[in-house]
Design a protein that fits this description.
By secondary structure, the protein is of the alpha/beta class. Helices cover about 40% and strands about 20% of the residues. The chain has a 5-stranded parallel β-sheet with strand order 3-2-1-4-5, sandwiched between helices. The longest helix has 17 residues. The N and C termini lie far apart (about 65 Å). The protein binds 4'-phosphopantetheine.
Length: about 160
């Protein structure tokens, strides 16, 4: 029987506990889940694609069937290459929906073999976003609650500012 492969795409700039929760919940539903760092042309990232990939790899090291990759092209093209049956996205709020709905319909047109599945975020992570994490870190705030502990220092080293007296 064919392996059931799902793709979890995103900017992951950086990966948060909200992303990790979605990955943990999606992984058992498939034989393989590939978390892929992609380009969102509407966003300017603070970390390179490779840096984001390494942070995800550290964060998912304990989940057996999860792989991590980078791809600088269309998501529909990537799902075709990997023979994936599903795209996994997390939904936080109604405000995410219109954009995600448009992307899901477009991806379905580009690759009719793949379904987009939405997982609702857990209540604890409703408010959480990578941009919020970057902002807090850049102002030397405490991001412990928001990011996987294994990448806490990587983020702070990059984004925090030297303290002035
Ligand atoms: O975490 P994000 O920024 O919401 O993720 C968006 C992402 C990267 C998944 C999306 O921008 C994407 O799929 N980029 C790859 C190019 C592409 O296929 N664009 C969508 C065409 S409908």
């Amino acid at each position: 029987m064919n392996k059931r492969v799902a793709i979890c795409p995103g900017s992951f700039d950086p990966i948060t506990k909200g992303h990790l929760d979605i990955i943990h919940r999606a992984a058992p539903m498939f034989d393989e889940l590939i978390v892929v760092v992609m380009t969102n042309h509407a966003k300017k990232c603070s970390f390179t694609a490779d840096e984001r990939r390494v942070m995800i790899e550290k964060s998912v090291a304990d989940i057996k069937n999860v792989k991590v990759d980078c791809y600088d092209g269309l998501l529909a093209e990537y799902t075709e290459k990997k023979n994936a049956c599903a795209i996994i996205k997390g939904l936080r709020a109604v405000s995410d929906f219109e954009y995600e709905f448009q992307m899901a319909l477009t991806n379905k047109k580009l690759n009719p073999k793949v379904e987009t599945l939405f997982l609702t975020t857990s209540a604890d992570n409703m408010y959480l976003s990578s941009s919020m994490v970057r902002l807090i870190a850049s102002m030397n705030g405490d991001i412990t609650e928001f990011v996987p502990s294994v990448i806490h220092d990587d983020i702070m080293q990059r984004l925090s500012k030297p303290k002035k007296d």
